[in-house]
Amino acid sequence: MNQTPEQLARDRIDRHLRQAGWEVQDKNGVDLYANDGVAVREFQTNEGPADYVLFVKQQPVGVIEAKREEAGMNITVVEEQSLRYLTAGMKFVSTDKLCFAYESTGEITRFTDYRDPLPRSREVFSFHRPETLLAWATTAPALRRRLKEHMPPLPEQGLRPAQIEAINNLERSFADNRPRALIQMATGAGKTFTACTFVYRLLKHAKARRVLFLVDTRNLGEQAEQAFLSYQPRDDNRKFSELYNVQRLTSSHVAGDSQVVISTIQRLYATLKGEELDPTAEEEDPNESGGWRKKEPLPVVYNERHPIEEFDFVVIDECHRSIYNLWRQVLDYYDAFLIGLTATPDSRTYGFFNKNVVSEYTYEQSVADGVNVPYDVYTIETRITKAGGLIPKSERRIEQREKLSRRRRWEAIDEDVEYEARQLDRDVVSPDQIRTIIREFRRVLPGLFPDRYHADGTFEVPKTLVFAKSDSHADDIIQCVREEFGQGNDFCKKVTYKSDEDPKSVLNQFRNSWNPRVAVTVDMIATGTDVKPLEVLLFLRDVKSSNYFEQMKGRGTRTIDFDALRDVSGTAKHAKTHFVIIDAVGATESKKTVSRPLERKPGVPLKDLLGAVKMGVRDEELFSSLANRLIRLEKQVTPDERAQFEQLAGGRSIKQAVKQLLDAYDPDVQDAARTQVQSELRGAAPDDIDRATEQALEDLTRNAARIFNGALCEYVENVRKVHSQVIDHVSVDEVLRSEAAGFSQERSKEVVRDFQGWLREHAEEITALDIYFRHPHRRREVTFAMVKSLLATLKADRPNLAPPYVWEAYAKLEEVKGGKPESELVALVSLLRRVAGPDERLTDYPGQVDRNYKRWIFARNNDGGVVKFTEEQLDWLRMIRDHVKQSFHLEPDDLDYAPFDQRGGRGGMFRAFGAEMNAVIAEMNEILVA
Question: Is 902 found in the same domain as 757?
Fold first, then answer.
């Protein structure tokens, strides 16, 4: 039977309504009790019959204006008609919950919630379920109103500036009812923590019902789950997981009480299709692996178990690769706000998110801020890698190996077997090509990390991640690495889902233990995985996209402090300053890399870079290279050296100097300068605007360079020398004297004489020495700051007289009372008391404080005229004693800080001692340091 376009549209609408749980009825056969949700065709309103009126539990909640398919392009023109039906009124029924309007052709459906602050229609995949519309109609205010009016200011404690900006801008985007938003944040800058923070706020303040966190590999899903489980809100003492239920999907079941659902987009697609998912489909990024399904994918259709309103918000991690083609169907299915997270957006990404970029934080900015570290590139190229190879037919037989079983067999050949470079390690394996690269890698490592030698002269390999082409290729690399480095199984391991060992366990060892030093992966930890101690990335595979390469490169960008790095790399001399990409396949030479290394003049000494800037050279490569060197230096210098830099740089810190060097040629900063000039000179002559613009750009480079005067340049070069070593591979040494370990008598006497002489020589210049030598009765006035200043001066002037070294010399010459102090400052005070008095022999200072304290307490408690201390007072006295052990003196202001603040601070001590408080403090300062 032929149907009109209008009838076809109604049939499609009826089908979609039934799928969403509605019973469709004609106006002449209305039974509002037949189902919780009833859609009545041609229901009469005071404005005339509406195409459909939606009833839930006998209450009208919405209307549908039906149009034939040809009207789809202009469907928004009937929004006014829908609104008239909503507001016209109906006989016999209350319309106080009538607030939802649809316009639909059965193929295209738009929806408006008239409870929103500024109602705006949006396209939806299908109709909402009856219970959803009733819940929305009885909930006040609506979600979009809550987003606009109920979000309190963001607590900024513990957040980086880029994270604060991203969250604030995102929430403004929600308040403006913008359906899609993009957060672009450099790898390692804390995208997941940012997501945890805004998701927490959406659940708590906007009362979001459920949030979906989408990833594209199982590994990333596991990491996201751990991030949410461990997230600690700033305004609540409980963990996120104690407040909200977090579910990582491992089946098609979404728990009814889950408020955060984590899933791979592959699993969600299969769930919506009602299909079972092969678990291996979640192991690799489907966009890079070429697709995980063999047959042509089918379009997503409505799934009654998973309605379109299942999630209020969808967060798409690594969205640059999961918003296109097959995967876009999943995102289009849900009626939700979409938030994309990526470090590497491309033009398609910007387009998908409607150019609504709420955060742009680049890798270069993150390096300038100290959030990430810069990198160097070292290239290894071999003949076979570049041009392939040829097995001549004279060999007669060639070895064949099955990729999965690795079973070998021999096969006869009657012609030459020629292969191209791109066939390596997939169709053809050249053991010597792999070995040549690994051997060269081993050879160049000491030159790239010249300070990584153990005391016995052996070199410590920095934590290295190798990117292989396939699981079989990874096995070949592992065998070769173990052999060429002369190490066992623990030294180099595979981290893929197909490895025999538990990959999570191996990854944990790689992060936190000395072994393995080298890990080989294919895709499992190529993106999103945080391994902070990584210092080398070895590329033995090329990649298909620039974004994927940037993600792989991002594994090395993470910062790590000195102590944490030394836990896994014992020869590290300072915090991680940079990482090295060793490119053995030409990955960095193609146009794949979005960000470039900051180092543009690798062979130029720092002294020459400083000299060039000092003399007025201002080219981009010079600024970039100098910024790179300063970033590395900033990771190595002491707080006092940083302060001295600021003083010589007119108050500008090293990080601020780096930022201005990089900003000088940053296109965004330059564009902002041009815009500002044009705004200020609006209406001026074009020539005047051009001159002012040129001057503004000139000012950017001048301001960046002006701090590098002679004094600062000399200081930076001297500090660099202190924190670097020259490796002498040429000179031959010989033994001139051999003694037992430790100091000889003569050497010890020499050290002691030098130390005593230095102290007396500087007694008039340094406050602490002046007090000890010339005003010993004022020893109680020596503060922690005075001793710290003395130590800094001593180490800068005579680093060979460091207190632990001098202590060892004294221990060789005389009996030492007590053990060796744990800190240099405490050791220095003990030595100072030995040289200037009152100690006649070297005595550990904390032990002396303990002994003085015991004598004082005993005397006070046995003096008949003095009231004994209460237990509360004794607690305070013991805290003061322990403070003086490390800080040498107690000021009343110290009571406002730990550990005293735990017991009420200054007020707490006054309650315990009353008016005697200051007298007790003065007496203890006197007695304990006597």
Answer: no
- In three-state secondary structure terms, 426 is coil
The DSSP output letter for 846 is H
Contacts of 340 (CB under 8 A, 6+ apart): 180, 181, 182, 183, 316, 319, 320, 323, 349, 352, 353
* Stated pTM of the model: 0.65
Beta strand pairing call for 313-317 and 375-379:
unpaired
Domain CATH code at residue 555: 3.40.50.300
Q: How far is CA 179 from CA 173, 339, 340, 715, 719, in A?
A: 8, 8, 11, 53, 52
Residues 814/842, Cβ–Cβ less than 8 Å: yes
- What is the pLDDT averaged over residues 160-178? 95
Is 31 buried (19+), middle (13-18) or exposed (0-12) by CB count in 10 A?
Answer: exposed
Own/partner contacts of 802-806, CB < 8 Å, gap of 24 or more, are 803/827, 803/828, 803/831, 805/751, 806/751, 806/752, 806/755, 806/831
User: d(Cα 613, Cα 510) in Å, to the nearest integer?
Assistant: 42
Domain final residue pick, 113, 139, 165: 139
State how far the Cα of 852 lies from the Cα of 856, in Å rounded to an integer: 6
pLDDT bin (cut points 50, 70, 90) of residue 904 is: confident
Residues shown for the chain:
930
Q: What domain count does the chain have? A: 7
Contact residues for 811 (Cβ-Cβ < 8 A; gap 6+): 820, 842
Show the domain range for 406: 383-423
For residue 820 the two structure tokens come to 């060796």
| Beta strand extents in 114-216 (DSSP E only) | 122-124, 180-185, 211-215
Structure tokens at 845: 């200072």
pLDDT of residue 424: 61
Cα–Cα nearest to 896, from 882, 907, 885:
907
> Is 216 found in the same domain as 311?
yes
The DSSP symbol for 371 reads S
CA distance 391 to 411: 13
724 phi/psi in degrees, rounded to 5: -135, 165
Residue 154 CA to chain centroid, in angstroms? 19
**Same domain? 833 vs 853:** no
The beta strand positions in 260-396, using DSSP E, are: 260-264, 313-317, 337-342, 357-361, 375-379, 389-391
Per-residue pLDDT band at 291 (split at 50, 70, 90): very low
316 and 183 housed in the same domain: yes
Q: Is the dihedral of CA 420, 426, 429, 433 positive or negative?
A: positive
Question: What totals of helices (H) and strands (E) does the chain contain, helices first?
Answer: 35, 24
Please check whether residues 826 and 880 belong to one and the same domain.
no
| Mean of pLDDT over the chain | 83
* pLDDT (average), residues 103-111: 94
pLDDT in tens, 535-583: 999 988 876 566 667 777 777 888 888 989 999 999 998 889 889 988 8
Structure confidence at residue 538 (pLDDT): 92
Q: Is the pLDDT of residue 292 over 50?
A: no
pLDDT higher than threshold 50 for residue 286: yes
- Residue 733 pLDDT grade (very low, low, confident, very high; cuts 50, 70, 90): very low
Kindly tell me the sign of the dihedral angle through the C-alpha atoms of 669, 671, 677, 682: negative
Token pair 């010339």: residue:
774
* Over residues 226-251, mean pLDDT: 93
Query: Tokens standing for 64?
Result: 């549908």
Q: Which of 120, 139, 158 is the last residue of a domain?
A: 139
Q: Give strand pairing partners of 59.
A: 56
Q: Which amino acid would we find at residue 179?
A: P
Characterize the bridge pairing of strands 100-104 and 59-66: parallel
Same domain assignment for residues 229 and 346: yes
pLDDT at 863: 61
Confidence class of residue 619 from pLDDT cuts 50, 70 and 90?
confident
pLDDT at residue 869 tops 60? yes
Domain presence at residue 286: yes
